[in-house]
Design a protein that fits this description.
The chain is mainly alpha-helical. The protein has helices at about 35, 45-55, 55-70, 70-100, 105-115, 115-145, 155-170, 175-205, 215-220, 230-245, 255-260, 270-295, 315-325, 330-360, 380-390, 400-435, 450-465, 480-485, 490-505, 520-530, 540-545. It is globular.
Length: about 550
């Protein structure tokens, strides 16, 4: 994002009183026409980017841990219900960025513009923290995957190799980043489609042994639900709630990918709504069918599944293919899952370093994070982000399952906190639009608003507070698990209150002072120049509908 250019128009809220210090801006946007017209991403590009970023180790590795803990039914239900949350968060973001799809926007930018600067400051650091921890999670997952082939090499070697390759791609060969991510995302999408097809074939008995699986593992003991912590109906509910919280790891930061690409998108007011709608439904198909297939081809008590009681090293998809007796395919899928973890770690390092770089340019982080190489690479921010990613070496003194669970907990809660901030921002944005009498000017309106946002805000807040409920059971108490589940919350609060006390920012910008007009005129003019493509035949009609 080009944040170091001069701003054509101020986007900060009017001052409400004298302040001893000026709070740094949450972001700057250049509204010059020539700058705003430079766009290259089409709808299919951003859908591909977002799907590639969302389909990763959460489904390929984390799902196996959920299956081993609570069974196939809670796993399937959790992913479906999480999609409702993703749908609402995506709608909130899509409404805001479709209204103001300016180059240079970020989530903290909208938070600072529609809520207040201190929350924007804490949100920016929370996103960086989430990305940095996700680097550690992906490196841990990569080490787990490699150990499927061999345990003769120490796990620290695999983690070190992954971190060095990520460092190389983010500093030395950054020009290859976009091309590498395109091919990595292609591999992931082809892999998940292939796995769904294989699962359907095995379901009907198309495997080498011609034994139809149907829902065999849902009926045989321990059955579809494995009671968690307690017995009976309450234990089954706790099983679902545990799966619900852990499934969030698969989706965090994925809706934001489409929102952040709005500033680079051709005809954003036409393409962002299209991408947002189709992204959610396609993700629901991939995760819904993917999680269902896992519960069909693998019993939850398979000893090779990743769990705190084992140091297993395989994706549930790989285990299912191996159980079916399909030769070679298990190794191919394991290699594809490895590329998924590697590419995700690479992308998270890139995203985290750019968040840190942007905050440094805006005065929200130390200036040295804005130092760049001759080629414009913010290498200090990259190194600092990777330093946090090096926490993956905790895998050395713990099982892979334990380390992966720590990192997934840390990043999941950061993601939940980020979504809470997004929904608060949307509520403020909508109320400000109503106050100024221009709510009908929104170019994209989503159903059930604002009631859906209020309801999901309550659910995500509840998930955040109860994410680590199991540690409060005396027999399950663990200081490390408690910290992994809850340390993010006080860190966020300290960042928020520290900034607010230091800069004496208001609790919230008054609705009459919320700026809902700057940039609207330029974006209206950009939308007026858009000429939607007209399909010339049925093939183009189908393609335009897909892409």
């Amino acid at each position: 994002m080009e944040r170091d250019e001069k701003v054509a128009s101020s986007l900060e809220a009017p001052e409400t009183g004298a302040e001893p210090k000026s709070a740094p801006s949450a972001g700057e946007v250049n509204l010059a026409q020539g700058h705003q017209l430079q766009r290259g991403l089409k709808s299919r590009h951003i859908q591909f980017l977002a799907l590639g970023g969302a389909i990763g180790t959460g489904l390929f590795i984390g799902s196996g841990q959920i299956l081993a803990t609570v069974g196939p039914a809670p796993l399937f239900m959790a992913y479906l219900v999480q999609m409702v949350i993703v749908w609402v968060v995506m709608n909130d973001l899509a409404e805001m960025v479709t209204y103001l799809p300016m180059k240079g926007i970020s989530i903290p930018y909208f938070v600072g513009r529609f809520v207040e600067p201190s929350l924007a400051f804490a949100a920016g650091w929370n996103y960086w923290y989430a990305y940095a921890i996700l680097v550690a999670a992906e490196c841990t997952a990569g080490a787990i995957i490699v150990q499927y082939w061999t345990h003769s090499v120490h796990v620290a070697v695999w983690i070190a190799i992954q971190l060095l390759v990520i460092l190389f791609l983010n500093i030395v060969a950054v020009s290859w980043f976009g091309e590498a991510e395109f091919w990595f995302a292609s591999v992931k999408l082809i892999t998940i489609i292939g796995l769904i097809i294989v699962g359907i074939v095995l379901f009907f008995g198309g495997g080498p042994n011609h034994d139809p699986l149907y829902f065999r593992y849902w009926g045989s003991p321990p059955g579809a639900f494995v009671p968690y912590i307690a017995s009976g109906s309450f234990g089954r509910f706790l099983a679902f709630w545990t799966a619900f919280a852990r499934a969030g790891f698969s989706f965090i930061t994925s809706p934001e990918l489409i929102a952040l690409s709005a500033g680079e998108t051709v005809a954003p007011r036409r393409n962002i709504p299209k991408a947002a709608r189709r992204f959610v439904w396609r993700l629901a198909v991939f995760y819904g069918l993917g999680s269902l297939i896992i519960g069909i081809i693998v019993p939850n008590d398979d000893m090779h599944l990743l769990s705190p009681d084992s140091n297993a090293s395989a994706s549930p998809f790989v285990i299912g293919i191996q159980r079916a007796g399909i030769p070679v395919l298990n190794h191919l899928i394991n290699a594809a899952v490895l590329t998924s973890a590697w590419s995700a770690g690479n992308a998270f390092c890139f995203s985290g370093s750019r968040v840190l770089y942007s905050m440094a340019l805006n005065g929200q982080a130390p200036k040295w994070f804005a130092i760049t190489s001759k080629r414009g690479v913010p290498y200090v921010a990259v190194l600092f982000t990777l330093a946090i990613g090096a926490l993956a070496f905790l895998n050395v003194s713990n099982t892979g399952a334990v380390a992966f669970q720590w990192f997934s907990n840390l990043s999941t809660i950061s993601g939940f906190v980020a979504w809470i901030v997004v929904m608060i921002t949307y509520i403020r944005f909508r109320k400000a639009m109503q106050f100024h009498g221009i709510l009908d000017a929104l170019p994209f309106r989503t159903p059930l608003q604002p009631y859906a946002t209020y309801f999901i805000l309550f659910i995500v807040t509840l998930l955040t507070l109860t994410n680590g409920f199991q540690v409060f059971v005396p027999s399950n108490w663990s200081a490390s698990n408690f910290l992994a589940a809850y340390i993010t919350i006080p860190i966020f609060i300290v960042l928020y209150l520290g900034h607010k006390i230091w800069f004496r920012t208001p609790f919230a910008i008054k609705f009459e002072d919320v700026d809902v007009l700057t940039g609207k005129k330029e974006m209206d003019e950009l939308a007026a120049m858009d000429q939607p493509p007209v399909p010339r035949n049925w093939a183009e009609k189908v393609w335009f509908w897909i892409a």
